[in-house]
Amino acid sequence: MENSYTQSRFNRVRRKTSEVMVGNVGIGGNNPIRIQSMTNTKTCDVAASVAQCIQLAEAGCEIIRLTAQNLDAARALKDISKQFRAAGFSNPLVADIHFLPQTAMEAVEHVEKIRVNPGNFSDKKKSVPVEYTDSLYAEELDKVREKFTPLVLRCKELGRAMRIGTNHGSLSDRIVSRYGDTSFGMVEAALEFARICEDLNFKNLVFSFKSSNTRVMIDTYRLAVKMMAQEGMNYPLHLGVTEAGFGRDARIKSAIGIGSLLLDGLGDTIRVSLTEDPVQELPVAREIARIASLADSDTPSEQIAEDIDFYSYKRRAAQLVEISDKVKVGAGTIPSVIEIVGQDKNASEAAEVSVKKISCGAYVGGGLIIKKYSTPSELESDLSANPDKIIAAEISSAKIDSFADVLKNALKRIIIVPSAAQGKDHAVGEARRIVAKLDSMGLALPVMLVFNREKLIDKNGDFDSRLDEASMYLGSLLADGIGDCVCVNISEDNLENAKIALDILQGARARKSKAEYIACPSCGRTLYNIQETAAKIKAHTEHMKGITIGIMGCIVNGPGEMADADYGYVGGAPGKINLYKAKKCVEMNIPQEEALEHLLKLIEEDMKNK
């Protein structure tokens, strides 16, 4: 398939966008990647909100967002802005708008940027399904234009910026009826609003297309760039994995989603969304942006055709290779973890791996030789000398063509390990190139993704930096459908490396090995202490392999953003919790002090019935 979303998939060349000014901060154009966060105070608590804005600004947050969930909150932005400026800070403020256009009309008077969600700015959820004929669809879109136009004109008059941000799971009934809850629907919803803005000659726009599902997020941003280009739009992109959760898993998901797109040259401002103190988001975001920037290149490297659908996930077809009776990779298997144990853990050296079952439940290794090959004769020699062994052959894309005959003669005995980056390519680009060449030769060999120090962009980074890079490398390729087994070597502890690999597979939606949590970071709309509650829910459920629990502060985005979750714990009213099973609300207005017990009972009953 033709790549029309990035200048290069093999090295990082930033997408050229228009510049959007948010107050005194430029996004896109020649500006660096801007770092954002969002307060979690009650916006009507002016003193607390100002204090947190100051904390964020002092910690290096370049753009600060607050919720304006009602008219009182929108009015409070006036005093927040005034006091924040009086304290000596010029960082632009952003108002997050949902449901109520009148709150946007108030907020735009006090802040430098407005964020609107096309899914709920104008369209309302219908109590009964509606069949949208072409005429009814056009009629509803005219109503959107009528409600949206005053805000656009006021932004234009005041020199404000606007982010049009769609969220997976919170699309309008009108969009879902025609396009489904899909990446295309997310992009089209945003473009409908953008077309209204352009008709009114307002172009100070930024776009976002967020999802808690990293695979959906990556596909949607890629599709958005393609569709925007078809309409002559080159607006900047705001990147984020929404409701990423907490702890290491949230950091991995953020590095996968945001980092993968940054390596493709997409993204102009980012927000890492953690269910933690907002200040804690900033170093994670800065590190992801820093790592990506180290791979910058002015010109695309030589391109090569790839047999990949860039806009919807499809796993690459690979033949089955049996490493042992218990360990198989390729066709029909879930990506597995290979833990390298033996003489040398570096994939560029020979290493033999034995079967081992780690505590997370994944089989690893088994009669496997890992070695870097420079010539076909070396590989031929090892195949002859080890007739009962599977060989994981690390070969560079520059040499893979010369190995064609040897590989064809040993299809069921070879797994390919992509080499480290060559020249100005990054490691993701090198892996894509070698897989493209294999596919062009008709060699459906399984691919083992090994991440070690040799693959690092920053060779001197600390553990957190290596974890970010490992997530970006594996996540980018897994999103492309590439990768039949993985190996991570960033820790001195083999078991820890295997657990990290499993966590990355889970963050990339390639394999489930433990409970997963979709949790919002909290904001002024949150109706309970979400950080404390999330910790309690995890403590009681983390042993439940394979389930996903959404922990959401309110009903604004909650039910939609946890669309992938098996169970949902959502703030329904002050002190009250609503419980969901899949997308259906099954209990409402449970006193908060009883809600965890109700959630556990719901899960336990389901498990008994399975």
What does this structure look like?
The protein folds into 3 domains: 19-293, Alpha-Beta Barrel (TIM Barrel); 321-507, Alpha-Beta Barrel (TIM Barrel); 516-609, 2-Layer Sandwich (Sulfite Reductase Hemoprotein, domain 1), CATH 3.30.413. The protein is 37% helix and 18% strand. It has 17 helices and 26 strands. The two termini are 42 Å apart. The model is unreliable at 343-350 and 357-365 (pLDDT under 50). Helix 4 crosses helix 6 and helix 7 (214-230) packs parallel to helix 8. The strands form 7 sheets. Strands 8-7-6-5-4-3-10-9 form an 8-stranded parallel beta sheet. By secondary structure, the chain is an alpha/beta fold. The relative contact order is 0.11. The chain is globular.
What attributes characterize this protein structure?
TIM Barrel; 37% helix; five-stranded mixed β-sheet; Sulfite Reductase Hemoprotein, domain 1; globular; 26 strands; 610 residues; alpha/beta
Brief rundown of the structure:
The chain has about 600 residues and is of the alpha/beta class. About 35% of the residues lie in helices and about 20% in strands.
Identify the strand order in the major beta sheet: 8-7-6-5-4-3-10-9
The shape is: globular
The amount of helix comes to 25-40%
User: Helices and strands: which structural class?
Assistant: alpha/beta
Instruction: Tell me the count of domains.
Output: 3
Report Rg: 25 Å
Distance between the termini: 42 Å
Gross CATH architecture of the largest domain: Alpha-Beta Barrel
